[in-house]
Amino acid sequence: MSLRIEWLRSFLAVTETGGFTRAARTLRLSQPAVSTHVREFEKSLGTRLFEHVGGTIHLTRSGEAVARESRRILEDVRELKLAAQESEGGVQGVLKIGASTTPGNYLLPVLLGKFEREYPSARAALTIGNSGKIMDLLRVNEVDLGVVGLEPDPEEFVSKPFVRDEIVLFAAVDHPLAKKGRAAWKDLAGERFLLRERESATRKLFEVWFGKRRLEPQVMELGCPETIKRAVAAGLGVGVLSRHSIKWEVAQGRLAELRIPDLPIQRWLYVVHHRRKHLSTGLRALLDILLREPRPA
């Protein structure tokens, strides 16, 4: 069985865009060329990769398995090219970083900027999502390195502590609990809490904290930290985020951190890569900067 890289690229483009015409536009090829690539790929594998249901195309069961392996093969090709480039000219190429919301928005940009200044032939591409999403991207090799808010399974991932973090409660400056200065956790019983989505590490840690006190909080779920902060400032409830997320607003007097016994919730943020991941020269250089540099204030 022979395979051609363009077959894999066209097949994955159709998978990710949901159609042959959109895939052709993405790849800057003609639609017949993409169709031919997929047809030849199916012929070589001896199986159908797509099926048409309800006017749309879907992966077959074989197609789902082939998509996973195709991504891995293309990533191996990318790393092969990167290794060849590095052997000629040092650290260069694009490194794909995935980060959960707190490190991705508030900590990594400064450090990635330093990395690119030290290695001007290299570029860092940053993807931000909740910790669960980033772990999934690491599993399928769609990002090279992750920075997340929960320590992953050590049998599957290698992780190193990146920076300590604290989950805190905060409110509008005119909220009764903010004016009170210090409150017992029972004072929170009637409050509505503005939280991240369930897959976020911040949300999981908070739910464990509340569960130990046998409280069932009223929840408004908002996926974006900036939206949570604005909703809290508007008086819609008490927010739950990393202290890194609200540091500027608290310093400016726009939000108030609530002083509650047993809070803040302490955690580590971790730099993570898959155990089977080949660490190129560029990735090792980036890891060195992430783990040795002073953390942004």
Q: Which structural class fits the helix and strand makeup?
A: alpha/beta
Main beta sheet strand tally, sense and closure: 9 strands, mixed
Shape: globular
Helix tally? 12
CATH architecture of the largest domain: 3-Layer(aba) Sandwich
User: Roughly how many Å is the radius of gyration?
Assistant: 23 Å
The ordered string of helix (H) and strand (E) elements is HHHEEHEHHEHEEHEHEHEHEEH
CATH class category label of the largest domain: Alpha Beta
Average predicted local confidence, pLDDT = 88
Describe what you observe in this structure.
By secondary structure, the protein is α/β, with parallel strands linked by helices. The chain folds into three domains: 5-70, Winged helix-like DNA-binding domain superfamily/Winged helix DNA-binding domain (Arc Repressor Mutant, subunit A, Orthogonal Bundle); 74-163 and 269-292, D-Maltodextrin-Binding Protein, domain 2 (3-Layer(aba) Sandwich), CATH 3.40.190; 165-266, Periplasmic binding protein-like II (D-Maltodextrin-Binding Protein, domain 2). Helix content is 46%, strand content 23%. The strands form two sheets. Strands 3, 4, 5, 6, 7, 8, 9, 10 and 11 form a nine-stranded mixed sheet that branches. A two-stranded antiparallel ribbon has the order 1-2.
Main features:
single chain; 297 residues; alpha/beta; Arc Repressor Mutant, subunit A; D-Maltodextrin-Binding Protein, domain 2; two-stranded antiparallel ribbon; 12 helices; 11 strands; 46% helix
